[in-house]
């Protein structure tokens, strides 16, 4: 951005006087230097990044990246070469909508948000003639497990079918809202007529659920996991049942991307470094994010851990872009967008230009994992039964187990367990466990404590 103008010394009268039109360009050009007292002073460029600290699968472009200082490091190196002082202003938001508002007003340069908000970002940018571009991904789940519908403990709501006539809190236009709409439609429930949808911020919805003014809550990472961990909610629908990819990504103002291409490159390099750090040091990264956000580390690790629900990778994978295109009709039917040209919105060139490191492998199936108190690393197991054996008698900080069908990781003591012969299987929701039991003679639902005993 342009910095304050250098003070001008009084001009001696000119004979003949120069026309005013010739003086104006000379005066305006002085605005390119900052605080000069003589000669040319270094320019100062401020880069504003909008992020969502509580949406923890955006941390490689937000909370974790900020704490590691990688972006600032990259910019300092650039500044030594071009004589510019770069500053980063980090702005924290609860959802993607206000980031989009600030971007289209030219006040935020780079932002991160979920797939549905990204489409709104594209549509709003085009409408206001402040176009934006999707340049990277932060975290993704190929089945859609980042979104979950939860109900209060002891509630009669145990499945989607129980939501008829009920009040469901969600953030309209969010990925969680998209999951809710699709899930209800697949279950033969009209989301516009058969439920009362409450359009609320995640924190407001969590309070409404606790107060009983909402019967269920459909939200994105990390709200469902946090409420379940704290005993304030139980899962009733696992977004991975949709088997549709969901992700969060990085969007940038097109004008900024053109004028500050090198700065955008530095951001993407820094994001890749933060992603490397998270993948190589998942426990330390989770504890760092927890410290900065106030979230329990165990909840952060559920999503961001070595076997977490989110896979961190900046690459704009084809399956994610294909899923983004499938999201457009959902938003269009809700009159939130018209047509969105996804291909024009997605720009893989900056990431290819900035990062030459090898691509990460595609996400693999999650494995059970045990976090023992006092340990800086976790233990990974091949089967849920092995996890339960190890958990018995251990000073457990957290135990995680993947859903037997969807693969979504969940807290072992919050999961619904099924004993099937000598095998023990876990499910995120009661409905998922019941479907399995109904199809397997002799299988039965057991409590977590009984599952631990059976494993031993």
UniProtKB/TrEMBL annotation:
Keyword Disulfide bond assigned: no
Pfam families documented for this protein: NMT1
Keywords attached to this entry: Signal
Residues in the signal sequence: 1-28
Keyword set includes Signal: yes
Residues annotated as transmembrane: none
SsuA/THI5-like domain boundaries: 89-285
Domain of life: Bacteria
InterPro entries in the cross-refs: SsuA/THI5
Coiled coil: none
SUPFAM superfamilies for this protein: Periplasmic binding protein-like II
Name of the protein this chain belongs to: ABC transporter substrate-binding protein
Species this protein is from: Streptomyces antimicrobicus
Source organism phylogeny: Bacteria, Bacillati, Actinomycetota, Actinomycetes, Kitasatosporales
């Amino acid at each position: 951005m342009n910095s304050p103008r250098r003070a001008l010394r009084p001009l001696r009268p000119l004979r003949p006087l120069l026309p005013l039109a010739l003086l104006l360009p000379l005066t305006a050009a002085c605005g390119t230097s900052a605080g000069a007292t003589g000669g040319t002073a270094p320019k100062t460029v401020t880069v504003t990044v909008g992020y969502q600290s509580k949406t923890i699968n955006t941390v490689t472009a937000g909370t974790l990246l900020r704490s590691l200082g990688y972006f600032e490091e990259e910019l300092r190196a650039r500044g030594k070469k071009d004589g510019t002082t770069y500053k980063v202003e980090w702005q924290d938001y609860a959802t993607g909508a206000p980031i989009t508002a600030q971007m289209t007003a030219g006040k935020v340069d780079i932002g991160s948000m979920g797939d549905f908000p990204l489409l709104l970002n594209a549509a709003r940018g085009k409408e206001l003639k402040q176009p934006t571009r999707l340049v990277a991904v932060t975290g993704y789940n190929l089945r859609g497990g980042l979104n979950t519908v939860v109900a209060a403990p002891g509630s009669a709501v145990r499945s989607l079918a129980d939501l008829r006539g009920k009040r469901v809190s969600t953030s309209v236009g969010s990925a969680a809202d998209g999951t809710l709409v699709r899930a209800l439609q697949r279950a033969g429930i009209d989301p516009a007529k058969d439920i009362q949808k409450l359009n609320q911020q995640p924190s407001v919805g969590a309070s409404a659920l606790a107060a009983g003014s909402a019967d269920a809550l459909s939200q994105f990472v990390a709200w469902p996991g946090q409420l379940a961990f704290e005993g304030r909610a139980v899962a009733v629908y696992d977004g991975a049942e949709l088997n549709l990819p969901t992700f969060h990504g990085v969007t940038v103002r097109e004008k900024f991307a053109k004028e500050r291409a090198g700065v955008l490159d530095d951001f993407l390099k820094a994001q890749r470094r933060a992603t490397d750090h998270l993948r190589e040091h998942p426990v330390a990264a989770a504890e760092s994010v927890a410290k900065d956000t106030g979230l329990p580390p165990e909840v952060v690790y559920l999503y961001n851990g070595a076997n977490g629900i989110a896979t961190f990778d900046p690459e704009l994978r084809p399956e994610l872009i294909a899923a983004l295109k499938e999201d457009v009709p959902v938003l269009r039917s809700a009159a939130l967008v018209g047509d969105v040209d996804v291909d024009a919105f997605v720009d893989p060139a900056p990431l290819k230009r900035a990062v030459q490191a090898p691509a990460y492998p595609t996400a693999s199936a999650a494995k059970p994992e045990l976090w023992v108190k006092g340990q800086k690393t976790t233990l990974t197991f091949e089967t849920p039964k092995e996890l339960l054996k190890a958990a018995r008698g251990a000073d457990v900080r957290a135990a995680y187990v993947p859903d037997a069908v969807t693969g979504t990781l969940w807290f072992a003591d919050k999961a619904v367990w099924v004993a099937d012969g000598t095998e023990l299987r876990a499910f995120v929701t009661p409905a998922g466990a019941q479907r399995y039991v109904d199809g397997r003679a002799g299988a039965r639902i057991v409590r977590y404590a009984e599952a631990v005993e059976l494993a031993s």
